[in-house]
Structure formats: C-alpha cells, structure tokens
Amino acid sequence: MNEPEFIAPRNLANLAAALRCATPDSRLVAGGTDLMLRLLALGRPDLLIDLSGLRELSFIRQEGGLIRIGALTTFAELQRDALLAAHAGVLSRAAAHVGSVQIRNIATLGGNVANASPCADSTPALLVLDAEVGVLNRAGNVERRPLRDLLAEAGKTTLGPDEAIVDFSFVPLAEGQRSAFGKIGVRSSVAVAKLSAAMIVKLDAARRSIAEAKIAFGSIAPAAFVDEGVAAVLRDQPVNHDTVEAFATACSNMVSRSIPERSSLPYKWHAVRGLAHDLWSAIQGAHHEECAKEHRDQ
Asked: Are 77 and 65 in contact (CB under 8 A)?
C-alpha cells in the first residue's frame, strides 16, 4: 500500500494549491486530536495536508464590528482570551469544557467543527452566536457561509474535498445579553458530552422579563442544532420559577421529538431538565455579578 503524499502549506496561497490536489480520500490535519482517531475507520488517505504551519490562521480579534477567530486557534487560547470572555462568554466557556489541558493546548476550533461530531463542544456555542465560517476554495477565494449550512450529519459537513475552513466570525454580544454553556457527560472531567447546550438571552430589566432567547443543543441529533420552539417558551416571560420550569419541560419535549426511538431517550429526557436549570443558574449568576459590580462602582 502506498504511503500518503504529504503537503505542509505555509500560507493561504500554498493551501489553495494543495487543495487543487485533494480528492475525497484526502485529509486536512491541524491539531490532529480527532483525525488520528478517525483514520482507523476512514482508512489510509492519499494526501495529508498539514495546516499546523499556517500561523496566520491563529488569532482572535475584533474588526469591522465582528469578532473573528482563525481556524487554527486552540481551545486553550479561546478559554483564556479576554475579548471572548467579555463579548462571547458562551464560546470561552465551551472551550473550557473541551477534553483535558493537553487536548485544549493542541486541538483547534476549525478542526472541532470540521470533524462534525454531534458532541463537539464548540458547535452549539457558535450556532447561538450566529457564526459564519470563512471557507477557502481551490481558486484561493474565501467564501462566507453560515455555520448551520456546514453541519450535515455525524462526521460529515457540506465542505467539498477541495475546501478548507480558515476562520469564524460573529457579532459580539450586546449590552444586556448574557450567555451560558453546559454539558453532561459520563465523567466529571474530560468527558464526551452526552448532552450539551448553549444559550443567549437578553433581559428586559424594566419589565423583569426575557426579551430575547436563543438556544442550541448538541449530542442529540446527528448535528448540533438551534431549537426555536424551546427559545419561544422563554421569550416575553417573567424571570421567575414558573418560567424556568416551563423551559425545562420544553427541553424534555424537544428530546422526545428528536429521538423518539432511541434507547437513550429516558435518560436524556430527564437529564436535559437538569441541564436547563444549570443554564439558567449560570445566566442568573452572571446577572447577579453585574449588579454587584455596578453597586460597588457607585
């Protein structure tokens, strides 16, 4: 059996040239934490394109009213970045849940999305942020696509073999918006998600109600997804115990609709209620911290 060809591009022009050689049996590798496991099932590739030398794709910055993140940015960098903590906390919290410290030091955001695992921690967070993905093609052009259009099914995206993710972009959270991320696994740490969710809400302080809500789930369907029905249960509702209980019930109903024949339904039906309460506790905690800070500053 022939050894795979190996290309290590040093800039985007080199990468575009490498993509012109790619076939459906070719593989791109960044951190490699997912690909090394999948190669056993996928078989030997005809071409490996090593992206690790593309340092221009490792960045987090704000420009043109957007936060932009390079595809080779590691989860350790996402977790500790001050810009994300202030304006996209849902993503920095999701990053903190990825694997171990060692994994976070090498695993990349682009690789996590491209691997298309239903239990990927980053995708629910990026979905609620309405993230767009910059995709480089073989001609060297970058096209922007909504992330939701890239996620196809477990282990598959809509990317062609001659395309590569180069960055992500989204609008930073506005004043009054708060976010949360939570997941449930079989272990207390380094766990693959059995359930995960990311949520953004905007509170109407004057009315003490929820003005806006968006929520995305992972580890339920073949790909992470935004659920409008669950979010609708929260909108225009008062911030009280009854609303949180209605939210938890809506999450359980969503699980019943999503996996009616799955053996994991009973477990996930109950577990998602706990996850809903965890999300809401995180949202309330952020609100109380902001109120305490405002009081101290007065």
From this structure: no
- pTM score of the predicted model: 0.90
- The backbone region for 117, taken as left when phi is positive above 0, alpha when psi lies in -120 to 50, beta otherwise, is beta
What is the C-alpha radius of gyration for the chain, rounded to an integer number of angstroms? 20
For the chain, the helix, strand and coil percentages under 3-state DSSP, each to the nearest 5: 40, 25, 35
Mean pLDDT by 10 residues, the chain (298 residues): 84 97 92 64 82 95 97 97 97 93 92 92 97 98 97 94 97 94 71 87 87 96 96 94 96 96 94 95 66 47
Q: Kindly state the tokens that stand for 204.
A: 């109407």
Kind of pairing between the strands at 60-63 and 66-70: antiparallel
Using an 8 Å Cβ cutoff, are 105 and 64 in contact? Answer: no
Q: Are 121 and 33 in contact (CB under 8 A)?
A: no
The closest of 185, 209, 212 to 201, measured between CA atoms, is 212
